[in-house]
Design goal:
286 residues; 3-stranded antiparallel beta sheet
């Protein structure tokens, strides 16, 4: 487990773990031998560099970030003599600083003073994922008319509009398809994305993983008009979006997720099964 989280760096010809993380984790283990690895970089000032990269990113850069998150590599010319003032001059300079500060690691050197870069380990990958979700939320919140249309389609039961607009949002964002990433982590990524969209409605009560029957639904919503919505999400590893939607709707029925909202006063209950696979999606309503 420590290897997954903290390895991936290379000094000269030697493979090393991140010493800062290993020391912190060992310190925690002294107090709790059963403690799991944590992300010790989550609140460091260096995360601002990733935020800057995302804000400056054009489609090519977003594709490169997607490659990294999915276990791939990118090739960049690295400048290690940069001054702080030069960092903002170009996106390439930000890549250089991310490499110098350990957010990226060298896989091999390429002729022409270039380096093949990758995310070093699970810790940094999860950090990137969280920052990508936050960036996406900030970006889509800027277009209030568009997001209001999307949310209205949920309360109206307009499946076609939900699916079309969600598909557009996915294509504008960064997807996770790396086979090494656990399915529940992929589902969490899309869950967070959809939750951010739906919580734009101030008058809605939007809850995540709330007990609504004989278990916990992914997302439940109550509107002032007493419309209740249950949304169950699935990631289709095999690409069969329709089967994943059916599985989601079956879970809603089997676990009686709608009953909790009915007891809380909902007059009308809409039940949605939504499946994802990379940048594709399908929406089905019971």
């Amino acid at each position: 487990m420590i290897r997954d989280w903290y390895e991936g760096y290379r000094f000269g010809d030697t493979d090393v773990y991140c010493p800062w993380d290993v020391i912190n984790y060992c310190d925690v283990l002294l107090a709790d031998p059963h403690a799991e690895p944590e992300n010790y970089w989550a609140n460091t000032s260096g995360n601002d560099l990733i935020r800057r990269l995302l804000k400056k990113a054009n489609q090519s850069t977003r594709n490169e970030i997607e490659q990294l998150l999915n276990g791939g590599t990118i090739i960049k010319t690295i400048r290690q003599e940069l001054t702080y003032r030069e960092v903002e001059d170009s996106i390439d300079n930000i890549w250089s600083v991310l490499y110098s500060t350990g957010y990226l690691t060298c896989r091999r050197r390429v002729p022409g003073k270039q380096i093949e870069l990758a995310l070093p380990n699970r810790e940094v990958k999860e950090l990137f994922l969280d920052l990508v979700k936050n960036w996406f939320e900030e970006t889509i919140q800027a277009d209030s008319a568009r997001i209001n249309r999307f949310c209205a389609a949920f309360s109206e039961g307009n499946v076609a509009t939900i699916q079309d607009m969600l598909h557009d949002y996915l294509w504008e964002s960064i997807s996770v398809r790396d086979t090494a990433v656990r399915r529940n982590m992929k589902e969490d990524f899309y869950h967070g994305m959809l939750l951010g969209l739906l919580r734009s409605q101030d008058s809605w009560l939007v809850r995540s993983n709330a007990e609504t029957g004989e278990g916990y639904s992914d997302i439940s919503i109550q509107t002032p008009e007493r419309v209740g919505m249950i949304i169950e999400l699935k990631y289709a590893d095999d690409g069969n979006l329709e089967a994943a939607c059916k599985k989601a709707l079956k879970q809603i029925e089997d676990r009686k997720y709608g009953e909790g909202l009915r007891r809380q006063g909902a007059k009308k209950i809409l039940k949605y099964g939504i499946s994802f696979c990379e940048k594709e999606c399908m929406v089905v309503m019971a």
